Amino acid sequence: MKTIMVDMDDVLTYGNFSEILENYLGYIPDYDNIKHYYIQDILGEKKNDFFNKFKDMNMYDNATLLPNCYDVLKELSKYYKIYICTDYIWQEIIAYAGNNLKNKYDFLFQQLDFISPKNFIFAADKSIINCDIKIDDKISNIEGAKIKLLFTAWHNKEVAKEELDKQNIIRVNNWEDIKKILLENKEKKERCKG
Ligand SMILES: [Mg+2]
């Protein structure tokens, strides 16, 4: 069975980090014009104060999976071995990153009841993971895979198709796109067998 590494943040769920940030700032930032990978980089000198409050919050409280994510993943799990691989390190408050790890574990455990927790991988350096297919919103995290799917996010949406083509990367905008790429042939074969 081929293996798939699936990222968590901005692929499985958006969490509620944006809401927490907006509540703190008191306004909605212009997300379309944020070029940083980490949205919190817009905080400037308020960063320490923000993280001091943020360290005890759960980014996944009431968070939901992205549309179609559950069904597509469940269908994928019939044909592929699925590993969820997510970075939990909070660079700004590294001593408290264990809180994030627990919150992530709880979210995955509760939301993805068909994936064994043994397949949850908590790692900042995803290059050590040797999976056939990698799905992530960060280009450096999908390097080395045979099939590389880049999930569209605010920080990668301007990477041109030619640039992605050069690196053999396929852009996906949602879970329906992932389904088309990874499942359509499988399901056709299944129907032929039947
Ligand atoms: Mg991500």
Quickly describe the structure.
With 194 residues, the chain is of the alpha/beta class.
Describe this structure in words.
This protein is an alpha/beta fold. It has 2 domains: 2-15 and 64-193, Rossmann fold, CATH 3.40.50; 17-54, no CATH class. It is 37% helix and 14% strand. Strands 3-2-1-4-5-6 form a 6-stranded parallel sheet. The chain is globular. It starts with a strand and ends with a helix. The mean pLDDT is 93. The structure holds magnesium ion (MG).
User: Radius of gyration over alpha carbons?
Assistant: 17 Å
Question: Based on the structure given, which CATH architecture of the largest domain is correct?
Answer: 3-Layer(aba) Sandwich
CATH homologous superfamily of the largest domain?
HAD superfamily/HAD-like
Largest sheet: 6 strands, parallel
| Strand tally | 6
Order of helices and strands: EHHHEHEEHEHEHH
Q: Report the average pLDDT across residues.
A: 93
Low-confidence runs of at least 5 consecutive residues: none
Which cofactor or ligand species appear? magnesium ion
Keywords:
binds magnesium ion; 194 residues; single chain; six-stranded parallel sheet; Rossmann fold; 8 helices; globular; alpha/beta; 2 domains
